[in-house]
Amino acid sequence: MSNVSIRNLEIRLGNNTIIEKLNLDVQEGEFVVLLGPSGCGKSTLLHSIAGLIDVTDGSIEIGGKDMTWADPKDRQIGLVFQSYALYPTMNVERNMSFGLRINGTPKPEIERRVKRAAEILHLEPLLKRKPAQLSGGQRQRVAIGRAIVREADVFLFDEPLSNLDAKLRTELRRELKQLHKTLRSTMIYVTHDQVEAMTLASRIAVMRGGVIQQIGAPSEVYAKPANVFVAGFLGSPGINFLEGTLERGANGVEFRSGEIVIDASRYAFISAPVFGKPVVAGVRPEDLHIGTGEAKQRGTVSLVEPMGNHRVVWLDYAGKALASIAGDTGVAELDASLGFTIDPQHMSLFDEASGQRL
C-alpha cells in the first residue's frame, strides 16, 4: 500500500495540452475517483501514473519514490482496463497467473495468490473455464483478479464497468467497494458515471479540460460544488439553475429571479455579498418541493418520470424547465398547475461571469 503524489504534471500530445499543471495527492488506502466527461484527461492522467504515457513536465511519486520515468513493470501497480484483455486460449487460472509466471514467481506462491484472489472475487468454480465460457461480469472479475495477484501497491481502474449492462454494473460496483474494504489498498478509479463515483469514492476529483475543478468527499462535492460545471455535472436529474441577482431583503440577503425570492441570509458566502450582482442559483431537485397550495410560484407539469420509489416531476415555469423529486404518491398530472417552493438551506450561489461559487 502506497501513496501517490503528482506535482505540476503536464502532458502534451503534439500541439494539444491534455493535462496542465496538475497536482494531486492520493493517501495510502484511499479510493480516489477521477470523474469527468469524455476528453477531460482523466484516462490520460491514469495512464501516466501507470507509465503508459510519457509526461511532458512534472513528477509522479509512488510510495515516496520518483516514478516519473520508471518502466510500468517497476511501478508496483495493478491496472484494470475497460476491455477485459484476456487470453482466449488460457483458462481463468492461467489468465490470472500469466504475469507471475512470466516474472518467474515460484509455483507455490502463484498458487497461493491465485487462490486468494479467486476467493475474494468468487471465481473458484470458474478457474478451469476459458473466457468464451464466461459472462461479461465474470470476465471483468478475472481481469480484476489478474491485477490482485500482483499484490501491487496501487490499483488503477480505467472505466472497468462501462462495457457491462446496468444490473452487472451495480453488482460489480458493490464488489469493488467490498474489495477495497478487504484489501485496504490504494485505488484510483476513472469513470464518467457519477453514480459510480458517488458510491465508490473516498474522495472525488472532478476534471474538465485537463484541470481538476474540485476534489473532496462525495457528499461535500455534491452539497457544495466549487463552480457551475461541477454543480451541473453531479446529480441525476441535474441541478436546476436560476439566473438572478442578490438584493437586500428584510432578513438580510435575498436571491431574486423574476417572481422567485429565496432567503439567502444564512448562506455561507465565501466573501461579502455584492448587492445587484448577477448570480446563478443552483437548486437540487430534492430541494424544490411541489404541491404546496399556498406557494406564490406555480408551474405547469410538462413531464412525469416514474422511478419506482419516487418520481421526477418536470415543471414549465416561465419557459424554463425545473425538476423536482417527489414521492410515488400524490397528484402530478400532465398539464396540471402546481405550486412549488424552494428550500434555501442547500442552495448554491455562483458568480454569473466566472461560474465560481460565492
UniProtKB/TrEMBL annotation:
GO (cellular component) term, any one: ATP-binding cassette (ABC) transporter complex, substrate-binding subunit-containing
Domain of life: Bacteria
Entries under InterPro entries matching the protein: AAA+_ATPase, ABC_transporter-like_ATP-bd, ABC_transporter-like_CS, ABC_transpr_MalK-like, ABC_transpr_MalK/UgpC-like, Mo/tungstate-bd_C_term_dom, NA-bd_OB-fold, OB_MalK-like
Gene Ontology MF term list: ABC-type transporter activity; ATP binding; ATP hydrolysis activity
Matches recorded under SMART domains: AAA
SUPFAM superfamilies: MOP-like, P-loop containing nucleoside triphosphate hydrolases
GO biological process: carbohydrate transport
Pfam family, one: ABC_tran
Occurrences of domain ABC transporter (ranges): 4-234
Sorted UniProt keywords: ATP-binding, Cell inner membrane, Cell membrane, Membrane, Nucleotide-binding, Transport
PANTHER family attached to this UniProt entry: MALTODEXTRIN IMPORT ATP-BINDING PROTEIN MSMX, OSMOPROTECTIVE COMPOUNDS UPTAKE ATP-BINDING PROTEIN GGTA
Stated name of the protein: sn-glycerol-3-phosphate import ATP-binding protein UgpC
Native species: Pararobbsia alpina
Gene name tied to this protein: ugpC_1
